[in-house]
Design a protein that fits this description.
The protein is α+β, with helices and mostly antiparallel strands. The protein has 22 helices and 33 strands.
C-alpha cells in the first residue's frame, strides 16, 4: 500500500471516530432532554426552590386576671431585593434619596448619606438579599411599609420581611420556673406550663416558597405564604400575679436574712385546688437568688414534723387514740434499739395529752404512740398511709414531679427503727406540693383534690376548654378524725410552736416542721455541722378555710432554723396579703350605722409591748413583721400596721418615732451616749441610722415637744 493511501485511511478512521462520538453525545442530550427531562427539572427545582416552614404565633400564657405571664414578641429582619422584577432604574434613582432619609429617621443608627451610598452600591452589585436592619419592631415595620420604594411590596419595591418570634415573661422572675420556657433541642419543650401545654401553645405551622440565590441565601418567592400558619391556643393559669409578687418578695427577704440555700412557697385554694402562687428561689454563684429549679414540685425530701399529722391521723382512724389521752414523754428522750429520739425542750414535757404532743411537736410522744400500737403490725400503719394517697404523685400537668417514698415492711431499707423514725417524718420523702395537697384535704373536710395550675384554654379570647376540679380521694379519713386533726392544727398556732403567727384579724391553723437534712454520702452531719429544713404548712381562716399554704426553707445558715421563725413569717405575710385583699373574708368591725372607727396614732417600739396594749384596748392591728423584736407602726384607715424594723448589733439603730424609754434602751445597749432635747417621741437623731457604731459616741435625740 502506498504512503498516500495509508494516510487517507488513517484520516478517514479519525473522522469516523469523531462522527460516532458526536452522534453519541447528541443521542445522550436527546435522551436527557426528552426521557429524563422531568426528573432533572424536579431535582433542579429542589436545589433552587424549597418550602420553608413558617412558625405560627405561639399562644400566650395568662394569670388568673388575664394578665400576661408569657408571650411571643415578634421581631422582623428587613432585607431588599435589588433585582426585583418591577424595580426599574427610574423607580430606584428617583426615590433612593427619600428612602435613605426615611430609613435614617426610623432607625437612627446611620446617616441618610450612609444609607444612600449603601443602597446604591447594593444596586450596582445586583444584590438580591441585601440586609437593611435586624430586630425591627412591629410598629417600625408598619412605618417602613409606607416608605418610598418599599410601599410597592416585594416584586416591585424589593421589600423582604422575615419574622422571628422571641418568648418573653413580662413579670421577670415571678413564677418563671413554673411558667417554664421553650427549647429547640430534640427533647422539645419540657419545662413548666410551656412544656405541659406545648401542643396547644405552638399552633399549626405554615409554608412559604423560597428560592436559592447567589451567596447560598434564600429569599421568598411571594409576599404571601403558600399555607398560612394557625396561631397557638392561649393558656389561662390559676396564678394570681399580685399574690405571686407577695410570695416571691416574702420568700426572698427570709432567704436573704437567713442566708438559706433555697426555699419554696405555694398557695392553694382549698376547694378547687387552684395554685394561686408558687415561688422557688435558689442562691446562685453571685450570692443572689433566682428561680433555677422547681423545688415545690420536684424536690422530694424528708418532711420532719409536718408528717406527724399523718401519723396521728392514722392512729385516730384506727381508734387507738383521742386528743385527750395522756402520754408520758418522760424526760424528753427515748431509745429505739440504739437510736435516740429527743424533744427540743431540755428535760422534756413530762405527761401531756395527744393534743399537746402535737401542739408542742413532741418527737418522743408521737414515736411512742406509733411504736406502741403498730410494733409488729407495721403493715397496718403503712397501708393506712397508702389509703390516704401519700405514696402517690399528685399527677399535676407539669412534668418533673418528684416521687414520694414511703417504704413498706420487708423492703431492703426497712429496719427496726423505721417505724418510729417514719412517725416523726424521717425515712419518708415527700415534695412540698404533696404535703400541701394532704393538708389541703384536712381543710377541705377530708376531700383531697388535685392541685391545678391551669383553669382554661382559649383561642383569641374565646373559650376552648375549661378544666374542672379533679378529686383524688373523696374522703381520706372519717369526719371525726378530720375534726380532731383540724383542732390539733389550730392548737399549734393558738398555744403551740407557732404562737408568733397569731393575729386578731383571722385565725391560722397549721404545723411547724424542722428537719435535719440527710446527705446521701455523709448522713445528717457534714463538717461537724447539721443542716436543717424549716417549714410551715397550714390553712386560713381556720374556722372557714379558704386557702392552704406551705413554705419550706432549706439550709438556713444563721443558727436560726425552726419552722415558726424561718418559714412561719413568710406564711403570715402571704396570708395577710390574701386576707387584706379578700373583703368577703373580713368580719365587720362595727354594725351598720355605728360611728366609723378611727385608729389611733402609735409610737414605734417593741412588738410584744405594742400587741399587749392593742389587744387590751381593742385596737385593730395587722403585723407584717418577720422575726424582729422591733417594729414601725403606720396608721391605716381602719387598723394600725406593724412592719419590721431591723436592728443589727454593729450599726446605729433607727429610733425615730419611738418612745424615749425604747430609744434609750436600744442606743445605750449599743454602747452609745444619749443626750435628749425635749419630750414626747423621737423626731430625729444626730447620728444617722445604719452608721457603724463607735463605742462612747454621743447621739442627740430631738423630741417631738420642746
Amino acid at each position: 500500500m502506498s504512503v498516500k493511501k495509508d494516510i487517507l485511511w488513517r484520516v478517514a478512521l479519525v473522522y469516523f471516530g469523531i462522527l460516532i462520538f458526536a452522534v453519541a453525545i447528541i443521542g445522550k442530550l436527546l435522551y436527557i432532554q426528552f426521557a429524563e427531562g422531568s426528573i432533572w427539572q424536579e431535582q433542579a427545582s429542589r436545589m433552587t426552590i424549597r418550602d420553608i416552614t413558617i412558625e405560627p404565633n405561639r399562644g400566650d400564657i395568662y394569670a388568673s386576671g388575664n394578665r400576661i405571664l408569657a408571650t411571643s414578641m415578634p421581631h422582623y429582619e428587613i432585607r431588599m431585593d435589588l433585582r426585583a422584577a418591577g424595580l426599574t432604574d427610574k423607580l430606584f434613582n428617583d426615590n433612593v434619596d427619600s428612602l435613605a432619609i426615611a430609613l435614617a429617621g426610623l432607625f437612627r443608627d446611620r446617616s441618610s448619606t450612609a444609607y444612600r451610598l449603601e443602597l446604591i452600591k447594593a444596586r450596582q452589585e445586583w444584590k438580591r438579599f441585601h440586609l437593611i436592619q435586624r430586630r425591627v419592631s412591629f410598629n417600625q415595620l408598619k412605618e417602613l411599609r409606607k416608605f418610598p420604594v418599599f410601599r410597592h411590596g416585594q416584586h416591585t419595591g424589593g421589600l423582604i420581611v422575615i419574622q422571628d418570634n422571641q418568648r418573653i415573661q413580662p413579670h421577670g422572675n415571678l413564677a418563671s420556673r413554673t411558667i417554664g420556657y421553650t427549647t429547640k433541642g430534640e427533647t422539645g419543650n419540657i419545662v413548666g406550663i410551656e412544656g405541659a401545654y406545648d401542643r396547644q401553645l405552638r399552633g399549626v405551622e405554615g409554608l412559604k416558597l423560597m428560592q436559592r440565590i447567589s451567596g447560598n441565601a434564600w429569599m421568598p418567592l411571594n409576599d404571601r405564604n403558600e399555607v398560612e400558619p394557625r396561631d397557638g391556643i392561649d393558656v389561662v393559669t390559676t396564678i394570681d400575679i399580685d399574690i405571686q409578687d407577695v410570695a416571691t418578695s416574702a420568700l426572698l427577704r427570709q432567704l436573704q436574712a437567713h442566708m438559706a440555700h433555697h426555699g419554696t412557697a405555694i398557695l392553694m385554694e382549698v376547694q378547687t385546688g387552684e395554685i394561686k402562687a408558687i415561688a422557688n428561689l435558689e442562691r446562685n454563684s453571685r450570692g443572689g437568688y433566682s428561680e433555677a429549679y422547681n423545688y415545690a414540685l420536684g424536690a422530694s425530701t424528708e418532711p420532719g414534723s409536718t408528717f406527724k399529722l399523718m401519723s396521728l391521723l392514722v392512729a385516730m382512724e384506727d381508734g387507738y387514740i383521742k386528743l385527750g389521752d395522756s402520754v408520758d414523754t418522760e424526760n424528753g428522750e427515748i431509745y429505739f434499739f440504739n437510736k435516740r429520739i429527743a424533744d427540743s425542750r431540755l428535760g422534756g414535757h413530762g405527761k401531756i395529752t395527744v393534743q399537746e404532743i402535737f401542739e408542742l411537736s413532741s418527737n418522743v410522744g408521737v414515736s411512742k404512740i406509733i411504736d406502741r400500737f403498730y410494733r409488729g403490725r407495721e403493715h397496718d400503719f403503712i397501708n393506712r398511709l397508702y389509703r390516704m394517697n401519700l405514696n402517690e404523685r399528685t399527677g399535676v400537668e407539669i412534668r418533673g414531679e418528684g416521687a414520694p417514698e414511703i417504704k413498706y415492711p420487708g423492703d431492703k431499707l426497712w429496719s427496726g427503727i423505721s417505724l418510729p423514725m417514719m412517725s416523726i417524718g424521717y425515712e419518708v420523702r415527700l415534695t412540698p406540693l404533696q404535703i400541701l395537697t394532704f393538708y389541703n384535704a384536712i381543710a377541705n373536710d377530708g376531700k383531697m383534690v388535685r392541685p391545678k395550675f391551669v383553669s382554661s384554654l382559649q383561642y383569641h379570647g374565646n373559650p376552648v376548654e375549661v378544666f374542672p376540679t379533679e378529686v383524688i380521694n373523696p374522703s381520706i379519713a372519717s369526719p371525726a378524725s378530720i375534726r380532731s386533726a383540724r383542732k390539733m392544727l389550730e392548737g399549734v398556732v393558738e398555744s403551740g410552736t407557732a404562737t408568733n403567727l397569731r393575729n386578731a384579724n383571722y385565725r391560722i391553723a397549721g404545723k411547724t416542721g424542722t428537719a435535719q437534712i440527710a446527705n446521701d454520702k455523709y448522713g445528717y452531719m457534714i463538717d461537724s455541722r447539721v443542716s436543717h429544713q424549716a417549714s410551715f404548712v397550714g390553712y386560713f381562716p381556720a374556722d372557714n378555710p379558704r386557702y392552704s399554704c406551705i413554705v419550706v426553707v432549706n439550709s438556713p445558715s444563721n443558727n436560726v432554723y425552726y419552722g415558726n421563725l424561718v418559714a412561719g413569717p413568710i406564711f403570715r405575710e402571704i396570708a395577710d396579703k390574701v386576707y387584706a385583699t379578700s373583703l368577703d373574708m373580713h368580719h365587720p368591725f362595727m354594725a351598720e350605722g355605728e360611728i366609723e372607727y378611727d385608729p389611733p396614732f402609735s409610737k414605734s417600739g417593741n412588738i410584744n409591748d405594742l400587741e399587749v396594749l392593742f389587744n387590751h384596748f381593742g385596737v385593730p392591728h395587722m403585723s407584717n413583721n418577720g422575726t424582729s423584736e422591733w417594729v414601725t407602726t403606720t396608721r391605716r384607715d381602719s387598723f394600725v400596721e406593724l412592719r419590721e424594723r431591723s436592728i443589727a448589733g454593729e450599726f446605729v439603730p433607727n429610733v425615730v418615732d419611738m418612745a424615749l424609754s425604747d430609744a434609750l434602751y436600744l442606743l445605750e445597749n449599743h454602747g452609745l451616749k444619749v443626750q435628749v432635747r425635749g419630750r414626747g417621741k423621737v423626731n430625729a437623731q444626730s447620728v444617722p441610722p445604719g452608721s457603724l457604731v463607735r463605742q462612747g459616741q454621743r447621739v442627740v435625740l430631738e423630741m417631738s415637744i420642746n
